[in-house]
Amino acid sequence: MNKPEFVTGTIDMTVDGMPAPMELSIPTGKVKPTRMLPVFQKMTDSFVKIAIDKITENGKTISCKAGCGACCRQIVPISKIEAHQIAKIIRGMPPAKRRKVVKRFNKAFETFTAIGLFEKLGSGKGLTLEERKVLGIEYFREGIPCPFLEDESCSIHSDRPLACREYLVTSAAENCISPTPNTIEMVAMPKKPSAALNKISKKDSPNDSPGYIPLISVLNWTDENPDRFPMRSGPEWIRIALLELKSNETASKQKNTS
Questions:
Q1: For the segment 123-166, what is each residue's pLDDT rounded down to a tens digit?
Q2: CB burial class (10 A; 0-12, 13-18, 19+) of residue 84?
């Protein structure tokens, strides 16, 4: 299969009322959404930088750094689009490393199946924010690290999920060992591409399920759900993503003013 051609251009965006132009290189031809992940990752990193610059101006600093992997024991919601790419990354690992990582995934999946976590999560519908928080705490207390965590650092850092990129705190690092709403101060993201990608995943899913799954379900889920996402041109994927970002921003503003 021929590699897609790319075009580089600037997208004029506004963040918190300020211009935030973003230069992106995107494929011109039709591609699967997984092929767009590097673009969505760069977009996410740009929004993260804006958020970091803002908190730095307010005299705060980011606590997160390599070697601090406490947050890597939480439920990580990833889009179904990301799930297929992560499964591909695992399949491409050297045999010895792949066996080790697959073993970790299997252990985590079996542990949370045994305590009924997936049954409690269900389809993701009908759960209140408080119920999701309770499940998150239950998950965290099991102490099972992300299968990609090595020496308390992410072993796929450059390919890490969008949700992981968006998760930053300014509270003391030691607070992350036993987090509570009162001890963790998260950095507010001006826009969240992870939410947009989840919505895109949901719309193109073959059934009426959410657009995300827990990271530890990747291998099991992709085995049962082959990639049926459509092919679209890079500009079309970007258009859809921007519409979802705008939709999420509007919904968030309405929620905060209601």
A1: 555 567 677 777 888 888 888 999 999 998 999 999 999 999 99
A2: buried
